[in-house]
């Protein structure tokens, strides 16, 4: 075999004198010298004829045909043994059918006893309701109970209080839900799309309530509201950060007049010298009997104010913005978590334990998100 180039030219040696030259090589190189009697066959010995070649070149010498073998009859089957085996197989099948029938009867009897016991109130599981087919397993129920968002709705914060009608918060594109090591937080980038809005109001502002959240602000300029309620001409309440008279401050403000005029707004303000990039728990309360509002910072009382009442403006709860004179303002920039609402005014000693996580003495909140 070559690599596709012309084959090398290997000159052949001259024939020895008297050798008669090279034999014929029909078809080109590579054939052996011609032998008498045909290609590939040995020459006949002197005095012996060459072997006959039937049909042409390449066939073997003819051989005498062998004598036909004597006929040997096939052995006869053992019909008696085959009958015994067939009878044994039939016996085994009958035993299997009988066993299946007995098991089926026992199962049917057990099922009947179970349903009878359920209907009569007896049996070992009479105090446990049956689990319907397709019901979630305990692990699935626990996962749903601890879910931060609504099932199959990853952009809606789930109300985890389960205390009355739930209020879900729909997050807009400028809001990011971030899972930390042992909690979740909401990050707001600021701007027109940086907010989350509830499907209804969180509190009845004509009655006592408490609203609280933990915030982490990344700016110390302008007005930055963490939570508010209302989407009409004005907010009903707002809680967050604001520069007041040139000073960085935390503020809890309520609207007492219908048109949202500045003269009808009441507020509690406390300076916030360390508001930047530091987690701070903010809590605002309204006592409908005493007609007072109060602000708490990191679970400590910061001040209170007397009000005539709070205007019940239309519109749902908001995260990251507030309504002023018919437009949205106060876009919050930073993070927040632990958002809760109670339908009562928490006392100072109750607010004092909010950040500790020991809330057993506070009663169940009406709404809760990111807890």
Entry summary:
With 371 residues, this protein is α+β, with helices and mostly antiparallel strands. It has helices at 79-120, 138-145, 348-351; strands at residues 149-150, 153-157, 169-171, 175-179, 184-188, 196-198, 209-217, 223-229, 237-244, 247-255, 265-271, 280-287, 292-297, 300-306, 317-319, 322-324, 327-329, 334-342, 367-369.
What key attributes describe this structure?
371 residues, alpha+beta, nine-stranded antiparallel β-sheet, eight-stranded antiparallel β-sheet, 3 helices, 19 strands, disordered N terminus
Structural notes for this entry:
This protein has helices at residues 79-120, 138-145, 348-351; strands spanning 149-150, 153-157, 169-171, 175-179, 184-188, 196-198, 209-217, 223-229, 237-244, 247-255, 265-271, 280-287, 292-297, 300-306, 317-319, 322-324, 327-329, 334-342, 367-369. It is α+β, with helices and mostly antiparallel strands and 371 residues long. The longest helix is centred in the first third of the chain and has 42 residues, at 79-120. A hairpin with a 4-residue loop joins strand 12 and strand 13 (292-297). Residues 1-41, 46-74 and 108-135 have low confidence and may be disordered. It has 3 helices and 19 strands. The strands form 3 sheets. The protein has a 9-stranded antiparallel beta sheet with strand order 1-2-3-6-15-8-9-10-11, with no helix packed on it.
């Amino acid at each position: 075999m070559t690599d596709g180039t012309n084959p090398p030219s290997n000159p052949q040696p001259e024939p020895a004198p008297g050798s008669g030259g090279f034999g014929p090589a029909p078809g080109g190189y590579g054939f052996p010298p011609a032998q008498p009697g045909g290609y590939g066959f040995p020459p006949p010995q002197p005095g012996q004829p060459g072997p006959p070649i039937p049909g042409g070149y390449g066939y073997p010498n003819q051989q005498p045909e062998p004598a036909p073998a004597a006929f040997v009859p096939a052995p006869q089957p053992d019909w008696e043994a085959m009958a015994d085996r067939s009878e044994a197989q039939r016996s085994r099948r009958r035993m299997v059918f009988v066993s299946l029938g007995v098991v089926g009867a026992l199962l049917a009897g057990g099922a009947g006893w179970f349903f009878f016991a359920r209907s009569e109130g007896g049996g070992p599981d009479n105090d446990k309701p049956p689990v319907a087919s397709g019901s979630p397993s305990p692990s699935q129920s626990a996962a749903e109970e601890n879910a931060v968002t609504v099932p199959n709705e990853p952009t809606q914060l789930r109300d985890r209080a389960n205390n009355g009608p739930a209020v879900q918060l729909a997050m807009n594109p400028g809001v990011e839900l971030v899972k930390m090591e042992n909690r979740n937080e909401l990050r707001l980038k600021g701007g027109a799309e940086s907010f989350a809005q509830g499907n209804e109001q969180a509190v009845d502002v004509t009655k006592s309530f408490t609203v609280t959240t933990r915030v982490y602000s990344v700016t110390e300029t302008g007005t930055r509201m963490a939570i508010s309620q209302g989407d009409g001409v004005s907010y009903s309440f707002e809680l967050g950060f604001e520069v007041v008279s040139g000073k960085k401050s935390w503020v809890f403000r309520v609207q007492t007049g219908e048109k949202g005029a500045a003269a009808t707004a009441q507020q509690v303000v406390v300076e916030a010298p360390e508001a930047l990039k530091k987690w701070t728990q903010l809590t605002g309360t309204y006592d409908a009997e005493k007609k007072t509002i109060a602000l708490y910072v990191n679970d400590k009382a910061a001040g209170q104010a007397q009000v005539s009442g709070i205007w019940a403006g239309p519109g749902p709860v908001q995260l990251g913005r507030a309504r002023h004179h018919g437009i949205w303002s106060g876009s919050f920039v930073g993070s927040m978590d632990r958002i809760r609402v109670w339908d009562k005014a928490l006392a100072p000693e109750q607010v004092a334990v909010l950040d500790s996580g020991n809330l057993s003495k506070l009663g169940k909140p009406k709404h809760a998100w990111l807890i």
